[in-house]
Automatic annotation (TrEMBL):
Compartment annotation: Cell membrane
Chain segments annotated as transmembrane: 242-262
InterPro entries: AAA+_ATPase, BTN3A2-like_Ig-C, Ig-like_dom, Ig-like_dom_sf, Ig-like_fold, Ig_sub, Ig_V-set, NACHT_NTPase
Species assigned in the record: Culter alburnus
Name listed for the protein in its UniProt record: Ig-like domain-containing protein
Top-rank taxon, per record: Eukaryota
PROSITE patterns (UniProt xref): IG_LIKE
Organismal lineage: Eukaryota, Metazoa, Chordata, Craniata, Vertebrata
Length: 506
């Protein structure tokens, strides 16, 4: 021991002097622990001295190697000529404590690398002694940063990240306290401040309900834990990245939806505008001078086109679509215009009526009589055509009906519904019960029975049954005078269609 001390003094270019056994240095504590950025006071206690001004104190760090000079007081005077740059301004001897026989080294703003073994040498005159203490600078682990990452179809990777010093023990467990540490995978690297940053991952099944806890343990008992509730946290606890992706997708969908909606609205308005002008062309407001004309359609000016409630509450799109398809090909606008102008409509009593009176009210039946060739079939076709093309300003305002069914009855026989069904130009078989339900129920529809002749028993009776049973359906029957005597008796509204004489010039 004495030999070593002599060697140290020589190494410090100190004159070789005998050290008295009477002068001793002791420590209160041999190990110190302090936190990063904190401070610490390392204490050596020495024997009473006669002249404190003669005192020499040397603090140096001797482990890790190489040794560095931390603080030096030579015969009462500070000498920074040997002090390591690492400790300049951070190391001080507390002068007042020298009077209490204590050589107290005050280290400030601690760094992780300040950890090590410190030696104090105290001398007075030709007597001296030394002791060593250890210092551990630690950094508590930061609160754990959790993240969840999808790694497979049914797997997620839970990740815990924290930094501190010294290196921790990371333990994973589940809700039943099963130790899952062996299944985890950790990586560590050093930060600028010599801290250890640890990321520990555990891969689990994404739809298995469980709690997973990661714990960071260090020797000093400093502990950080975090728990994942799976699968709850996969949705809300996801990393901000996922939240962002979801948010962006939602915004994009909203933009797409709005633009499609606006375009459809725009197109819809455009096409309805087209239809309105088509209608206006079809049924021009005739000059008032023509007010006696049966074709005056002043009351039927183009009206604003809105989606009707029937269109929104589509009940049987298939039937409606089939008929729309079937009737929209019947006539061209020019033909319709020309034809409709050539008809006159009279009541049974001979009073002239607007052509729009041809459309029955709800649950009303109209019998339209006309001589052969008077154009009953043509008018029936015009009605269905106007309906099919959804012309919003037709003379009959027929577009608002949900369904128009035109049935050619000239050679019809058998059950009424079968006859109606056979009027559909449709390759696939239609369900009669659907049709029945539609015509008997509350759907606003128009059934046109064109060219009806009484005399077929089954048809007459089933039709009669239908006319009494139906809830709403409008029915227009066209026939030659005298061919439907029974109907003529029961139906109140009987109209006559007359082909007007050719008007020259117009
Ligand atoms: C420190 O070194 C300088 C020059 O190397 C010297 O002049 C000065 O006296 C020294 N200080 C002490 C306290 O020894
Ligand atoms: C200081 O750290 C060393 C190694 O890092 C360890 O062996 C020792 O127990 C620690 N001392 C204290 C007081 O924490
Ligand atoms: C869990 O297992 C790891 C290694 O497999 C072990 O180091 C640790 O002590 C265990 N922890 C508990 C709480 O059993
Ligand atoms: C941990 O990761 C390494 C490299 O990524 C891999 O080789 C090893 O198998 C993994 N261990 C576990 C338990 O997942
Ligand atoms: C742990 O997960 C993180 C992020 O999910 C990844 O960057 C890192 O490479 C993973 N580490 C290991 C050891 O698998
Ligand atoms: C998970 O933790 C929550 C909160 O402590 C608890 O209510 C729940 O029962 C736990 N679930 C499982 C599967 O352990």
């Amino acid at each position: 021991m004495r030999g070593m001390l002599v060697f140290i003094f020589q190494a410090l270019l100190w004159p070789a002097i005998p050290v008295s056994a009477l002068f001793t240095v002791n420590v209160q504590k041999s190990a110190y622990e302090a936190e990063l950025h904190g401070d610490v006071k390392l204490v050596c206690v020495f024997s009473t001295v006669k002249r404190p001004s003669d005192l020499t104190v040397i603090w140096s760090r001797v482990n890790p190697k190489p040794d560095v000079d931390v603080y030096r007081l030579e015969k009462g005077k500070e000498n920074h000529n040997y002090t390591s740059a690492l400790f300049i301004k951070r190391a001080q001897l507390i002068q007042q404590q020298l009077n209490e026989n204590k050589a107290v080294l005050h280290l400030k703003n601690l760094r992780i690398k300040d950890s090590g073994t410190y030696r104090c040498i105290v001398r007075e005159g030709d007597e001296g002694d030394y002791k060593q203490v250890t210092l551990n600078v630690t950094a508590p682990y930061t609160p754990i940063k959790k993240s969840i990452r999808k790694t497979g179809q049914d797997e997620v990777e839970l990740s815990c990240e924290s930094q501190g010093f010294p290196s921790p023990q990371v333990i994973w467990s589940d809700g039943q306290n099963v130790n899952l540490t062996e299944k985890s995978n950790s990586s560590a690297h050093n930060t600028d401040e010599d801290l250890i940053k640890v990321i520990s991952n555990l891969t689990v099944k994404r739809d298995l309900v469980n709690n997973y806890t990661c714990s960071f343990l260090t020797k000093g008992g400093i502990k950080q834990t975090a728990t994942f509730s799976i699968p709850d946290e996969i949705l809300h606890g996801c990393s901000a990245q996922y939240v962002w992706i979801v948010a962006v997708v939602i915004v994009l969908l909203a933009i797409a939806f709005i633009s499609v909606f606006l375009r459809r609205r725009k197109n819809g308005q455009k096409s309805r505008r087209n239809e309105s002008s088509k209608c206006a062309f079809l049924f021009p407001s005739l000059p008032s001078a023509n007010s006696d004309s049966l074709l005056t359609v002043n009351e039927n000016r183009p009206q604003t086109c809105d989606i009707t409630s029937e269109e929104l509450a589509e009940k049987s799109p298939s039937l409606r679509d089939i008929l729309t398809q079937q009737y929209s090909q019947l006539d061209t606008d020019v033909e319709v215009k020309r034809k409709i102008e050539s008809y006159a409509l009279h009541s049974k009593e001979g009073q002239s009526l607007n052509i729009s009176s041809i459309l029955p009210d709800k649950k009303q039946t109209i019998l339209l009589l006309g001589e052969p060739g008077s154009g009953k079939t043509t008018v029936a076709q015009i009605l269905s055509s106007c309906w099919a093309r959804r012309i919003t300003a037709d003379a009959f305002n027929i577009h608002r009906l949900h369904l128009v069914v035109l049935v050619d009855c000239s050679r019809a026989e058998g059950d009424f519904f079968q006859v109606v069904k056979s009027s559909f130009n449709y390759e696939k078989p239609l369900d009669v019960s659907d049709l029945k339900e539609m015509l008997l129920g509350p759907t606003d529809c128009l059934l046109i029975l064109d060219g009806y002749q009484e005399g077929n028993k089954v048809l007459d009776e089933t039709l009669k049954g239908f006319l009494t049973e139906r809830q709403t359906c409008r029915v227009l029957v066209t026939s030659h005078p005298g061919q439907c005597p029974a109907l003529e008796k029961t139906i109140r509204t009987v109209l006559q269609l007359i082909q007007r004489p050719e008007e020259s010039g117009s």
